[in-house]
Amino acid sequence: MVKLDEEAYTYMNLRLNSEFGTLRAVLMHRPGKEIDRLTPYNKEFLLFEDVPYLDALQREHDAFSNLIKDASGAKVYQLRELLIRVLYDEKMLLGLIRDSLKRSGLTHLAEDIVERYSTAECAGILTGGLKVHELKRKIPNLDAGEIMDFAFAIAPCPNLYFQRDPMALTPGGIVFSSMKMEGRQREADLLRTIFENHPEFKDNVNKIYPVNGHDNPPSIEGGDVIVLSHEAVAIGNSERTDEKAIYHAAKALLAEGSVQRVYEVHLPKKRQYMHLDTVFTVLDENLVLTYPDAMNSVFQTSLYTLKEIKDDKVHIRREVLNESLVKVLEREIPHLEVLATADGNPDYSMREQWFDGANVFAIGPRRVISYNRNVHTNRALREMGVEVLEIPSSELSRGLGGPRCMTMPLSRARV
Ligand SMILES: NC(=O)NCCC[C@H](N)C(=O)O
């Protein structure tokens, strides 16, 4: 009976105390029109390595979401459905459309767009973007000034299928990301709008970041936040996450009380190490999968703990550790076993890390979903007793993110 109560309480409390507890609910985004917006000329700005084939990408993504359902029984939420539900609030919709038009300087068209497109179409515009010539078909006497017909009135969000990054769930609540790269900034606005307004979630949001009153919060992205244990979280100081953001998130987490320790891990600022979860993932209470080159090159680490809360003011302590990432993990994970991508074989581990070999998605303890192309890593995982379920990855991997990057777990069994 007690267990049932606890289950009911924890099912959707939007806190996670592990990276591997049996999955119960996850948020994903089935890629759509936004992928067809990529060209050889804009792909760098939009953070893609190549121009994927949408039809095949969708088939691969469907294989992934179906595998999650079949193998774990978890509920898979689709971002598009949640988004449409919250956009029925016209004020909210107008605000998002207006913000999205800022870059093209066409904010004066926001009302027209909201009036002439259905709510579902507006959701499609906020994710897939809108070109000036498309808008002209709806609004024939449109004044777009000097802007060319083939320019974007609203830019697309092709990275939206990397649902891990626009927010992060921790033992203490939600970190809403402040995305570093301009090409991804709207993603965080969409997720925050959903979670703060959707009737299924809004009452369970405990916001850790951004801190109230910060208009332009320093950048932090969900892929840099990893739960190490019930009491500890690691945050990457990376190409995407700023040390000020780590400080503020650490302070809020420590003040909230569920988390006792927050580790800051400096990563080399390189594209292939863009987030902490590109160099390691946690697969069980004592097993991590890592990219050895990163483990060996990370030495700048710090530990935040709570000093005191006095007169409502929170004071935290920062201790510079300068320990390797493995040492940091050993502090938190007793009897740690470290498995290297491609079993450490230098001929393959660099290749497989590039296609996110270290970035597997745990659907339960020692049960992971991995890209089929990372054959040497998958073999090493199986030899370690891990159940490895493979998904096709020719197109999905062109965005440079792996199975963990593509998922936002919302509920896991407590471990
Ligand atoms: N957590 C992750 O590592 N996510 C992968 C994000 C890939 C995306 N193309 C990006 O560059 O932001």
From TrEMBL:
Q: Name one GO molecular function term.
A: arginine deiminase activity
Which biological pathway?
Amino-acid degradation; L-arginine degradation via ADI pathway; carbamoyl phosphate from L-arginine: step 1/2
Q: Which reaction does it catalyse?
A: L-arginine + H2O = L-citrulline + NH4(+)
Using the UniProt record, name the top-level EC class of this enzyme in a single word.
hydrolase
Enzyme Commission (EC) number: 3.5.3.6
> What family does the Swiss-Prot or TrEMBL record give for this protein?
Belongs to the arginine deiminase family.
UniProt name for this protein: arginine deiminase
Which organism's genome codes for this protein?
Answer: Algoriphagus zhangzhouensis
Q: What are the leading ranks of the lineage?
A: Bacteria, Pseudomonadati, Bacteroidota, Cytophagia, Cytophagales
